[in-house]
């Protein structure tokens, strides 16, 4: 069975500082990995994904994530945080499988708080 | 291009009732997935439909069911509502390849009293 761990319930960072939101995963075979962000009373918004290829993936709003197969991690990063980045962040995984099924497994979410 | 739309946005029901939630995917998207989001359990996969066929199902009781129509619109139904069914129900659509990301709707907030 696949699983995702987001070890930090909350991450606090000062505006302008770099931020990292951690994610580790467990899946049989090759993983497809995703990051989503959720603002209050809204649905999830796609940030970036790793399917194959370069381990460093760039996404929306200046976010990037690094895929590390040996550590089974896919940490989300941003060089300079903004107050508007404050939101709930979800990491998700699904295994490569034939038939194209799309059962995503999400982590528990990390609340990012960026302060002035 | 219009995003994923879900109706209604808010719903209040009482225990024992049933409820139907609706989701209209992005035009051209044939895959629709449903998720339940609660503070205690987080985001949990309910089921996925593609071309009117259920492709995947999560670990929910049979009270939770869904269907997809020929225009890709989807509905989910919960019968015999329980207090624990109170949650945000999210619908997501995806275009074509399973490599593609899902686009989520704003959700339906269901409260069971």
Secondary structure layout plus pairing:
The complex is a heterodimer of chains A (116) and B (113).
Chain A: E1 3-5, E2 10-14, E3 19-21, E4 24-26, E5 31-38, E6 44-50, E7 56-58, E8 64-68, E9 73-78, E10 87-95, E11 105-106, E12 110-115
Parallel strand pairs in A: 2-12
Antiparallel strand pairs in A: 1-4, 3-9, 5-6, 5-10, 7-8, 8-9, 10-11, 10-12
Chain B: E1 5-7, E2 10-13, E3 19-24, E4 31-38, E5 42-50, E6 53-57, E7 64-68, E8 74-78, E9 87-94, E10 103-104, E11 108-112
Parallel strand pairs in B: 2-11
Antiparallel strand pairs in B: 1-3, 3-8, 4-5, 4-9, 5-6, 7-8, 9-10, 9-11
Question: Could you write a compact summary of the structure shown?
Answer:
The complex is a heterodimer of chains A (116) and B (113). Chain A has 116 residues and is mainly β. In chain A, 0% of the residues lie in helices and 52% in strands.
